[in-house]
Amino acid sequence: xxxxxxxxxxxxxxxxxxxxxxxxxxxxxxxxxxxxxxxxxxxxxxxxxxxxxxxxxxxxxxxxxxxxxxxxxxxxxxxxxxxxxxxxxxxxxxxxxxxxxxxxxxxxxxxxxxxxxxxxxxxxxxxxxxxxxxxxxxxxxxxxxxxxxxxxxxxxxxxxxxxxxxxxxxxxxxxxxxxxxxxxxxxxxxxxxxxxxxxxxxxxxxxxxxxxxxxxxxxxxxxxxxxxxxxxxxxxxxxxxxxxxxxxxxxxxxxxxxxxxxxxxxxxxxxxxxxxxxxxxxxxxxxxxxxxxxxxxxxxxxxxxxxxxxxxxxxxxxxxxxxxxxxxxxxxxxxxxxxxxxxxxxxxxxxxxxxxxxxxxxxxxxxxxxxxxxxxxxxxxxxxxxxxxxxxxxxxxxxxxxxxxxxxxxxxxxxxxxx
Length: 419
What we know:
alpha/beta; Rossmann fold; 2 domains; 6-stranded parallel sheet; 3-stranded antiparallel sheet; 15 helices; 11% strand; elongated
């Protein structure tokens, strides 16, 4: 596809590289990867840092600067046994604002949204997530906040909290991220211990809403039941990360090929990135279709080790793949998936598959499933079961409805396109 579109650049490609085969050069002499063979047209995103590698990008979130997404991302990336722990599950139900100014929004509402986000920052800091104070300050100023690190606690509350917890008078209002974190922790601990103090009420009503109470309770939880539970997500955070989805969509629009290297990633992480990026591509192409601006632009998505991405049962998180299979052609989206286990692929996806490239399947059950899905493979069962020749494939395509053998050669980066 790279060679076929080298003059038109009208097909963007996204590859979910579960084993790192497309982005990492094999050390054997004469071998190369898709990325190294096409440095001008391929971009790699890595989940893990590559020592000595200067190209590509790291797949990272900035949990501080995308509060409206952060809790959902944490929920997906956390191990199930942690995400379902009562205190963590309650924490993950909170909803945070994106802090963008809204038309006719009251200043008091904006201040409250920022204060809640700052409480969330306190949790992140306690869990060990690093931050870039100057970057956050500039970001808040760009959103129209003048007192960037002041959560706006009343003088009475500040004085009571510092006196009760630290046995000292309240300092000046926070002017840096570190002083903000101190103040957040001071007030949260005060709220937990002296929850009936008059300074925690305004006109007889609690100062903090239910979600703020949850955030503070989580922040102050003892015995590592609070913020430390989030530390498994530390490898996916960077204090300088930008939103990678718009960048990837831009590269695809330009006809680029993006390889998402998810090697060594837990299955839940692989599924998270696959679902989010697939959903973003579908929404982008659907919008172009509705606006009438597809103009011959296509996107091709490749799913390596698809049995790790497409669960057998339909769930809310896998509906996007069914939509891609059934509606993708209308929006100029094609999908390619590879697996050693057809029986573990959702039947809705298998039934929509038009082209089959079959190498070796070691299980007769898998072969029978294939033949049940595509009767054209009847009679080729033994050839598929005993095949051990690297690259020898039994091929059935939409344009040629007979199964024919084909020998695929080892990838060497050369242009083999016949004009």
